Amino acid sequence: MGNTVIKTVPQQALNKEEVTNTTLKQVHYEQISESEEFKHLVKRKRNFLVPFSIFFLVFYFTLPILTSYTTILNKAAVGGISWAWVFAFAQFIMTWVLCTVYVKKANKFDQMSDEIIENLEQGDQRL
């Protein structure tokens, strides 16, 4: 059985010279992937990404479908502005909100993965 090896470099090593002078630590991916912490991270990411992706796609494709096949969005919402314009503007808001939520969640996921690697480097027996 071949072990897949991931070499980690400290984030402070920004240029190539620093990377080559840094002692690279070897981490076995299979060992990480079998750990409970990694499985928990993958589950949390999946539980976040799947519903958000489905919501985004449904919301995004609803506008062209409704404007192409129905007249429901042709009615005036406010003055001369139709519901189609309101829905289109809502897509911008939805995108900004989802991007903000995604960035915050991604930072947490990055922190969790850093902790997993840190635990492995410290010789945590659970990994």
Automatic annotation (TrEMBL):
The lineage of its organism: Bacteria, Bacillati, Bacillota, Bacilli, Bacillales. It comes from the Bacteria. The chain crosses the membrane at residues 48-69, 81-103. It comes from Oikeobacillus pervagus. Keywords: Membrane, Transmembrane, Transmembrane helix. InterPro entries: DUF485. This is Uncharacterized membrane protein (DUF485 family).
